[in-house]
Write a structure and sequence with these properties.
Helix 1 packs antiparallel against helix 3 and helix 4 runs antiparallel to helix 5. The chain has 559 residues and is α/β, with parallel strands linked by helices. It contains 21 helices and 16 strands. It is globular, with a radius of gyration of 24 Å. The strands form four sheets. The chain has a six-stranded mixed beta sheet, sandwiched between helices. A four-stranded antiparallel beta sheet has the order 2-3-1-4, with helices on both faces.
Length: 559
């Protein structure tokens, strides 16, 4: 029989095991564009339950453990893989309801309900994904039980073998996996979690994560990480929209109706709910419509909206952040009394960019950006460390925007105004438009207008082989993006920078700023400027800025 303490330790062990190998899981992710977040999403999803489980006494029942884990995971779920993982455990919780100690029958019934919950939540279930791995694992466990494996540990051993077998076959079910020569990332993550649980069931050994408490806490605190879809081979809708609704007890509405509505405006719909919240995921062209529909069920607790077409430039994300920036813990900022009228904070990576935002008037620059999304707590610290009654926050990245907006109700003694800047050039343009003699509302309007008049180019590189439409991308290829969309696959960052900047410029262009980052020398930046000068009209002023940013060889601002 599986006692509550064993189940608690098993889930912690499963969490540690995927945390240990999350980078390897990230490297497998290729749906629908390379983003490398599945391992992190699943690790942080199940990791959200660990802190809650550690508070439970060893006398706890299996039912209480499962319920606590499912509730925490639903709230902490990130991306499709994380939502599905939370749904698996939600089903397990339902199956173990009222169970003091779980035998093989209870365990298998719980896992069956988990698989059912996961499949039910996905509009168009795709075989060859985490869903298949979970289903086959449950089937293998039940088959072993029918052949005399009555002990829970033997049943769970069969579950793990079934999951591993299904994982090996995922490339045969999904051609895109076979072309890339990988197995499904979500399925691999589930195998790691199940294996971590088996270690406790079999020998009472909790697998270590290989991470310090500080590192684990820092990762768990990263809100709103990017989560590209894991079920489409093509992007049909632009915006990946996720939100959590706090259920209004006075509103009697079936979440199924919400799901049916979302299916009319998008795809990849997931709607998961319990007594307190509804967790929603949808791909759509109209995120506002989805949010308005959600508001009919209660208040929005968290919101995340991401442009999946921009996700392609994140294919090198998990492997290329500056080691210093990624490893360094966020500084602890001292709270300041709001004595001034207006203040500004910005998010940026790279010493040059940080210095530039400080020079333009930001009181604090939060370290972060693509692949290094700061948490809501990080941004809130910066807001409270800004001695102003009204604090403008410039996220400078779509993936950080909603985390920034979460600070609005949290900063009780000052007003937070989030300017939805999605790129570094937009943030710089907004700061340059600030007028100290204007009101907060006037500045908000003029800064937004300035940000909207900027085009952004990016030059980065491919971290692995992949595909984009009919074109093959090879590891090390240079990628040129215009306003978040991939346009050029080249071999040289200098020529790519020139090509992107030139294509963004028009007869009305007055300024082009080339912000060069890690991997680009001052001489190379000058060469890019020289080549560009020969290709645009003579009235265009071209400036160079040493940004020092990771991930991007060049960030290009065209006004």
């Amino acid at each position: 029989m599986i006692q509550g303490a064993q189940l608690k330790n098993a889930i912690i062990s499963g969490s540690n095991n995927i945390a240990k190998y999350r980078k390897q899981v990230n490297d497998l992710n290729i749906f629908p564009v390379p983003d490398g977040d599945t391992g992190s999403n699943m690790s942080m999803t199940i990791g959200a339950a660990v802190a809650e489980l550690k508070k439970l006494p060893d006398t706890v029942s299996a039912s209480e453990v499962a319920k606590k884990a499912a509730s925490a995971m639903l709230r902490g779920a990130r991306g499709n893989s994380g939502v599905i993982l939370s749904l698996l455990f939600r089903g397990i919780s339902k199956g173990l309801e009222g169970v003091e100690m779980a035998g093989s029958k209870e365990l298998l019934h719980a896992l069956d309900l988990g698989v059912e919950e996961a499949y039910k939540a996905v509009t168009r279930p795709t075989e060859g994904t985490i869903l298949t791995v979970a289903r086959v694992a449950a089937e293998q466990g039940r088959e072993a039980f029918s052949h005399g494996a009555e002990e829970p540990v033997r049943v769970w051993d069969a579950v793990c073998m079934g999951a591993a077998k299904a994982l090996e076959e995922t490339p045969e079910l999904l051609p895109v996996l076979k072309r890339a020569g990988v197995v499904d990332a979500g399925g691999q993550g589930l195998c790691l979690i199940f294996e971590g649980m088996l270690s406790v069931f079999r020998g009472g050994i909790i697998i270590e994560s290989g991470m310090s408490e500080e590192e684990r806490a820092q990762e768990t605190a990263e809100f709103f990480r990017s989560a590209a879809a894991e079920f489409d081979s093509e992007i049909t809708f632009t915006y990946c929209t996720e939100f959590v609704i706090g259920r209004d007890r006075e509103i009697v509405k079936d979440p199924l109706d919400l799901r049916l509505h979302l299916e009319t405006i998008g795809d990849c719909v997931l709607v998961a709910d319990d007594e307190e919240i509804i967790k929603v995921h949808v791909h759509t062209e109209d995120p506002g419509d989805a949010l308005q529909a959600g508001l009919q069920y209660g208040q929005l607790l968290t919101v995340k909206i991401e442009n999946m077409r921009e996700q392609h430039r994140q294919l090198n994300a998990a492997q290329t952040p500056s080691s210093q920036e990624a490893a360094a813990p966020a500084p602890v900022l001292e709270r300041q009394e709001p004595t001034e009228e207006l203040g500004f904070i910005s998010v940026a990576a790279g010493d040059g960019l940080k210095s530039l935002f400080l020079e333009l008037g930001c009181a604090v620059v939060v370290s972060g950006g693509q692949t290094m999304n700061p948490s809501t707590e990080d941004i809130l610290q910066a807001v409270l460390a800004t001695p102003a009654k009204k604090v403008f926050v410039l996220p400078n990245n779509k993936n950080i925007l909603m985390a920034a907006e979460q600070t609005i109700p949290l900063a009780e003694d000052r007003e937070v105004i989030v300017l939805p800047t999605k790129t570094i050039p937009q943030g710089l343009a907004a700061m340059l438009a600030f007028d100290p003699d204007a009101s907060a509302q006037e500045n908000r309007e003029s800064m937004l207008e300035a940000a909207g008049n900027v085009d952004t180019g990016l030059v980065t590189f491919a971290a692995r082989d992949s595909e984009f439409g009919s074109e093959a991308i090879r590891r090390g290829d240079i990628l040129g993006l215009k306003n978040g969309k991939l346009h050029y696959i080249e071999k040289d960052p200098i020529s790519t920078c020139v090509r992107v900047a030139r294509s963004l410029s028009t007869k009305q262009t007055s300024f082009i700023t080339l912000i060069y980052g890690e991997g680009i020398t001052a001489d190379q930046a000058q060469e890019a400027k020289r080549q560009l000068s020969a290709k645009v009209h003579s009235d265009v002023e071209i400036n160079l800025v040493e940004g020092g940013q990771p991930v991007y060889y060049f960030i290009i601002s065209v006004e």
